[in-house]
């Protein structure tokens, strides 16, 4: 069979050290076809040197492109975050009320039922994020009118953490009286005392308030949010 004319021309280019991309700029030949033709083609030393040089330059260009892209994405992320941060501003009491109820909806104790004997409803909110904790404390103070000395704080830590360090950390953040703090060690069989110290380095803080009426106020707010959709 007479070989295709473009095969012979492409072969000449390949033997001169042209890449598949360069050959395709001369002929409309799929890259897969070029690979079938030339993947096992023995090349001279000069052609191999040229191709290695081109691959290296291509790699370096790709590295620089990826670096520039990473910087560009990082700056874009920073800009987006800054733009939407500015949309919040100072929260009104109504907005704080909705925020606090929504936080409790997601992270608070809600399993009280009136049918339980001797059951007493109480507010219990827990998290390891200090900003979320402070948002809820602000809700408790400004919306429920409960002072911080009425809040009981229990810290749950793992055995490799120091109780005093955890208490100092959360007391400085919440400004809840120190005598209101208790520390509990959570022993996990799965972790086998090997839990990394950088994971929850100050444990999880639970805030408890024994106020029946305020508990049902929060439940009412949550139901109001549900019906608002």
What integer is the average pLDDT? Answer: 87
How would you classify the helix and strand content by structural class?
alpha+beta
In total, the number of strands is: 4
Task: Kindly report the spatial arrangement of strands forming the biggest sheet.
Answer: 1-4-2-3
Uncertain runs are none
Topology order in helix (H) and strand (E) letters: HHHHHEHEHEEH
Query: Number of helical segments?
Result: 8
Helix content: 40-55%
Estimate the strand proportion.
5-15%
Main sheet?
4 strands, mixed
Estimated radius of gyration? 33 Å
Question: Could you provide a short overview of the structure?
Answer:
With 229 residues, the chain is of the alpha+beta class. It has helices at 5-15, 20-24, 31-38, 45-85, 93-107, 130-142, 163-174, 212-227; strands spanning 123-127, 152-157, 181-185, 204-209.
Using brief descriptors, characterize the structure shown:
229 residues; 10% strand
Describe this structure in words.
The chain has helices at about 5-15, 20-25, 30-40, 45-85, 95-105, 130-140, 165-175, 210-225; strands at about 125, 150-155, 180-185, 205-210. The chain has a domain at about 95-225. The chain has a 4-stranded mixed beta sheet with strand order 1-4-2-3. Helix 5 (about 95-105) packs across helix 6. The protein contains 8 helices and 4 strands; from the N terminus they run H-H-H-H-H-E-H-E-H-E-E-H. By secondary structure, it is an alpha+beta fold. The model has no long low-confidence stretch (mean pLDDT about 85). The N and C termini lie far apart (about 75 Å). About 15% of the residues are buried.
């Amino acid at each position: 069979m007479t070989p295709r004319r473009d095969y012979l021309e492409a072969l000449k280019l390949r033997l001169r050290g042209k890449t598949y991309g360069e050959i395709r700029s001369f002929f409309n030949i799929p890259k897969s076809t070029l690979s079938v033709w030339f993947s096992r083609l023995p090349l001279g030393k000069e052609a191999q040197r040229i191709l290695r040089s081109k691959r290296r330059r291509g790699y370096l260009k790709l590295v620089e492109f990826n670096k520039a892209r990473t910087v560009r994405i990082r700056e874009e992320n920073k800009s987006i975050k800054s733009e939407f941060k500015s949309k919040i501003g100072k929260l009104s009491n109504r907005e704080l009320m909705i925020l606090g109820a929504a936080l409790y909806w997601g992270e608070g104790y809600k399993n009280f039922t009136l049918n339980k004997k001797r059951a007493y409803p109480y507010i219990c909110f827990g998290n390891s994020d200090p900003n979320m904790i402070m948002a809820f404390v602000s809700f408790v103070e400004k919306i429920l009118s409960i002072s911080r000395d009425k809040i009981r704080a229990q810290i749950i830590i793992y055995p490799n953490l120091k109780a005093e360090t955890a208490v100092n950390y959360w007391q400085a953040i919440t400004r809840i009286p120190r005598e209101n703090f208790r520390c509990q060690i959570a022993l996990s069989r799965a972790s086998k005392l090997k839990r990394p110290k950088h994971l929850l380095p100050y444990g999880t803080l639970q805030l408890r308030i024994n106020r029946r009426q305020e508990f049902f106020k929060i439940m009412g707010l949550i139901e109001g949010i549900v019906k608002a959709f």
